[in-house]
Amino acid sequence: MCGIVGVVSSQNVNEKLFKGLANLEYRGYDSVGMCFLTNNKFNIKKGVGKLEEVHKKLDFLNSSGSIGIGHCRWSTHGGVTKKNAHPHVDCGNRISVVHNGIIENYSELKDELIKKGHKFYSQTDTEVIAHLIEDNLRNNGIEEAVRVSLNKIEGSYALGILFADEPDKLIGARNESPLIVGLGDKENFIASDVPSILSYTNKIIYLEDKEIVVLTKNSHKVIGLDGKEIIKKINTINWSAEAAEKGGYGHFMMKEIHEQPVAIANTLNERLRNGNVQFEKEFGLSDDYLRKVKRIVIVACGTSWHAGLVGEFMLEELARIPTEVEYASEFRYRHPILDKDTLVIAISQSGETADTISALKEAKKYGVKTLAICNVMGSSITRISDGVIYTRAGPEIGVASTKAFTTQLAVLYLLTIKLSKLRKTLNEKQIRDMISGIRKIPLQLQSVLDEDTEILKCAEFFSNKPNSIYLGRGVNFPIALEGALKLKEVSYIHAEGYPAAEMKHGPIALIDKNMPVFFIAPHDIFTYKKVLGNIEEVKARGGMIFAVATEGDKEIPKKAKRTIFIPKTLYTLSSILASVPLQLLAYHIAEKLGRDVDRPRSLAKTVTVE
Length: 610
Ligand code: M6R
What we know:
alpha/beta; Glutamine Phosphoribosylpyrophosphate, subunit 1, domain 1; 7-stranded antiparallel sheet; 36% helix
């Protein structure tokens, strides 16, 4: 996920590009770049780091031009380097391109273009676009060259394109990546989202897939990839700039909860092929090695530690590999027992958590192989590890982890499929069922999000209670822990998670009519009936029961005050679906209590101290 912005105006565009990118930084912040066009020449400034950091070195505001494009990057193809930062140009330095998306056929196109004599400077898929347009410009005008080129491209793109020889025109295009057009007074814009330009105009055109826009400061024209002109509706936006930044949601946390269907789809993208799981080359661990692994140790903190516990369940149950999950902060002080057949997996959203980095370094002293499951490209943990699987959740701004957690679960599930297949612990039919199960998850998540009104009603009961308990079993015991952590961190209400059957060994003494108890009780062949018994035990003591249950369950609604339904899925995958109602519950309770949901007291998004 990257952010792009472009402006064509009668005035200097430096400030508008700068502010636009500042608003888009949530989309990516590993590098940033801008291109200004003056006197038929490009002035490109780009570098590695956040906007402010690069600005300190390059002074973006000390640039001039009445037309320009800008980009903030969340790397996908090519490492985090200045060369790979956008904009990218063609051989003649006459075409400048910023891009958000993934060009799937870029290596074929690149080979063809190299054969024709084009020289490439970066490892990105984006650079192909600049050279392809250059190639097609030999026989066409600029609009036609863009159109012909885009017809050859497969994949997703939102593009901003400048031509040094046509200094009045800014071209944008979209396919499966967001791009909007803003119409101002003697100036026009393209951007990845509305908020980034909302201070300058609220007249917005939403581009659809396979549409190209040609802007001058006084005009706009939209054409399809077939070259036909399309008349578009101009929308007037009434959001305040601040609300809009959050896509119309009250908080980033809520926005990120709602991004989960897309985040999981991105995490799966191109990894499920021919009845198997294939990770990218950064995965770095050979099949031979994976067949021989005798034990897995997972190190992580907080929510990522909970993901590790779900991973333990999956890896032991399905891939039959003994797995332990360690708090990263404890691991390094315990003289762990590790040998060459142990794989150490570090799970971290940020890749910068100090405790997890230290645990990983400790593990490496024993000469074991290490694998990172991480959301941030190029972060410390990914650099230290032998291999990496990225979670592709996109930037997570809210301190409470939501989409990062469920994408971690999705990655652990994919890894379990890969290991189960390699070690033949599951047959082909079981593998196929696992794959088809996870493919359904993005759509099923959407239907869980649609239960929000019911969840809001549950929040009414929790918000005036000082304590609460979350109970689950098997793969959903860690989800109970995670539900309790979400509530604690955003609402400051004390909450505990337990394995449901453990209740009777002590915590049941806490139950009375003032104690809300949330059961995570999807239907399964292992423990469902026992959980019904645990519900009765709580009910007998007057506890207020709430539950997550599987659609069609007739028993639980008879016992619970409110039931949130999740769609039928495989048992292991119920952990992903059941997480979402608990995130929404914590959010609504915190909101009712007027908490600072995105920046809860005493917490930081990334804990870089031990
Ligand atoms: O970036 P990491 O995943 O390594 O962060 C670990 C924890 O600090 C983090 O999960 C924390 O518990 C979150 N605030 C939970 O919402």
